[in-house]
Amino acid sequence: xxxxxxTSYNIYVGEKSFDExxxxxxxxxxxxxxxxxxxxxxxxxxxxxxxxxxxxxxxEIIELESGEENKTLETCTQVWGALTDIGVDKKSLIINLGxxxxxxxxxxxxxxxxxxxxxxxxxxxxxxxxxxxxxxKTGIDFSGIKNLIGTITEPKAIFANPVFLETLPLxxxxxxxxxxxxIALISDAAFWLVLKKLKNSIQFRNEEIITKAIELKNVIVKxxxxxxxxxxxxxxxxSIGHALESALIKQEKDILHxxxxxxxxxxxxxxxYQQKRITKKECDEICIYLHSIYPKIKITxxxxxxxxxxxxxxxxNEGGALCFALPKSIGKYELSCIVMPQDVKNxxxxx
Length: 351
Description:
Blueprint: E1 2-5, E2 10-13, H1 17-27, E3 33-38, H2 39-44, H3 46-52, E4 60-64, H4 73-86, E5 93-98, H5 100-112, E6 118-123, H6 126-132, E7 137-142, E8 145-152, E9 157-160, H7 170-187, H8 189-195, H9 201-204, H10 207-223, H11 238-250, H12 257-274, H13 280-293, H14 301-311, E10 322-327, E11 333-339, H15 341-350
Parallel strand pairs: 2-9, 3-4, 3-5, 5-6
Antiparallel strand pairs: 1-2, 7-8, 10-11
Helix pairs in contact: 5-6, 6-7, 6-10, 7-8, 7-10, 7-12, 11-12, 11-14, 12-13, 12-15
């Protein structure tokens, strides 16, 4: 098992993380436990958690509906109402058991309820283990724009146990693996070489791969918790990816975050090549690998129009200009790269 020290908390990765969870709870004196989950983590993950951490059999359970479309203020209102009815106080602990939607929304709910109560994350998907639950970002979507409302509030601990990934379908593993690829491309060329040799879901969810991805993200987060500088690099692939995800959700089409990010990574890689930040060889290397894992997403004229509207609201934009985080050779990055709207349209059409 690995213990990764973040800014103010520890991240425990491995099957022995249940032991660390029991130590953590025993050390604290919380008045009440509340587990927030969705129907998937309720069915597949909650029994494992309760079996390995008996004190949590006393916990209250709040079940959310899964899916990005439920990461809304309306859902938060329902959860705050439930917390009030349960009698949650400042000495209570919220346990976010689930994927990215659960940790994003559960963390946000905890960060503002009674001006903030403690929470921990127990990620149950690859996406939430390597990305969503790490780094203190909480948030919800608003007016169709991803993560428009949120806080940066760190959990008291994270317990990432790969045993939960055994129940995930291949599509969900790939969903998280897109973020593993991204962190390698912006921060570690050697890790990228390791990833290029991986070909199946068992390799994608390997404990060593998960630990390395978390460590790389953690290094960046510790230097820039509030995303004032280098943490923006973690948004590589997300300017176009988030716009694509938001557009398809608006059109009520089936899309996962990692699938949109993979497509966004391909398109933003092509922009990096056009701006001569990476070589053609590097561009082809990245795009060929991503295309080998992720099926191409159909982008209609209507989807493209919506994407161009959503991309205007990207949080990295400055002074009305589109600003991207782009690779500067594999394993390095550049921030605040100005991109013309026409260049975005061109790579969407090229994709």
